[in-house]
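Give me structure tokens for this 279-residue protein.
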Amino acid sequence: MIALDHVTYAYPDAAVTVLTDLSLHVPRGTLCGVVGASGAGKSTLAKVLSGFVPHAEGGELAGSVQVGGIDVPQTPLAEAIEKVGLVTQNPFNQISGAKFTVREEIAFGLENLGIERAEMIMRIEAVGELLRISHLMDRSPYALSGGQMQLVAIASMLVMRPAVLVMDEPTSQLDPGGTRMVFDVVSELTRDGTTVVLLEHKLEQLRDHADQVVVLAGGRVALQGEPREVLSDERLTQWGTGSTRYTQAARSARDRGLDVPGPTPVSFDDALLTFGRGA
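Here you go.
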């Protein structure tokens, strides 16, 4: 579903590349988490996958980018967005500014695709219930909190039903309850066949929901694999990604000579199994 091979990219007039010889393959129906330090190239990767690089940003792109059955650099952006949806980190930048209500905002993309009115209404109601924003439908998008606006931005992409969904820190404005809901929704999408690339700093949630995790460092894929194995790797600190409090606690215990059996825990459930086994 996603096949990036030897991708290198530099922004216009930039002296250095942001992505360098990057290769990434993600099967259909997979939730792929992407982590990395600030400046590792995560947001640029999201733009490459969705076609905003090079179509909107310009610059020099080399390598092959195949997403959702299309050659992204060779496909007009207006066509690419039918296959690949992008949720940006800042929801304020994703609101169109052309609509007066949340309902109209969510409908905006469907109108551009020429979806029939009855189908539009059905989809909007369904995504409103899914993200628990039905009560916001008649409000102005600019009268919402940051978290509510984030959910509207996510709804505006989900309603399009893209084959591939790229999400750049979609829970940055959300409280813990909203974060759990978004991860649950994304997991449900992948079970239905949607491929999701999720750029996120919340490692514990990725441990519990992702099928695979990719670590970016210096514009390259430094590590890729099963979530618990990748997220407990000691090199994450070296790459600036950090680790969860459960991983830190286990390492601290081992440094003090305590027996911590099994793999290093990443999430709360991991920690229960690890420390319970040692009790």
